[in-house]
Amino acid sequence: MRVLVVEDEPILADAVAEWLRREAFAVDVAHRGDEALERLAVNDYDVLVLDRDIPGVHGDEVCRAIAGGDIRILMLTAASGVRDRVAGLGLGADDYLPKPFAFVELSARVHALLRRTRPAAPPVLERAGLRIDPGRREASRDGQPIVLANKEFALLTELVRADGAVVSTEHLLEKVWDENIDPFTNVVRVTMMKLRRRLGDPPIVETVAGVGYRIR
């Protein structure tokens, strides 16, 4: 799952991004509203974490520009009054979190927003003996826990979420890695090799030549 964090305070933006990366999200960061709109135009994000008071293009205008689409919007602001929350939601935000906030609450709200995607995603994903709990960052196969690195966990989540459909390498690059990744890299293949070793036998991830991968 891919998240765009828009926050004009660099230290806070980097801290939020690092926290979400530990939760196996792919995260990009923008410090201005115009930067955010540029990234939103070219990348397929699942959640936008948006500070309301940002330079360039105000956060309200960014929210209005994308509200109603598939991306979920979590608005951040130092203004925590009822009128401010109502105004933020009225702009099209899906959730509203006043500053200061606890990072654990932030990530819980991001996970909750992901469950409200179209179609709605269940809180726990299951297929072919695999069980993935993104909120708790837990994975198991046939009841046995699997210890996964962040990118391995994110990769497996995308495959299980596809429910048997083939997932292309391009889609995995888009959803599991951030905008700094080299589009010609073999990182998907390498990470998939590691994931397959973690999952053990019998093999469960199938390669569809020239197309991508799927859970059998």
From TrEMBL:
Any single Gene Ontology cellular-component annotation: protein-DNA complex
Keywords for this protein: DNA-binding, Phosphoprotein
Keyword Aminoacyl-tRNA synthetase: no
Pfam family, one: Response_reg
Gene Ontology molecular function: phosphorelay response regulator activity; transcription cis-regulatory region binding
Modified residues (4-aspartylphosphate): 51
Residue stretches making up the Response regulatory domain: 2-114
Signal peptide coordinates: none
PROSITE patterns referenced in this protein's UniProt entry, alphabetically: OMPR_PHOB, RESPONSE_REGULATORY
Domain OmpR/PhoB-type residue range list: 122-216
Keyword Oxidoreductase attributed: no
GO terms, biological process: regulation of DNA-templated transcription
Domain of life the protein comes from: Bacteria
DNA-binding segment(s): 122-216
Identification of the protein by name: Transcriptional regulator
Lineage: Bacteria, Bacillati, Actinomycetota, Actinomycetes, Pseudonocardiales
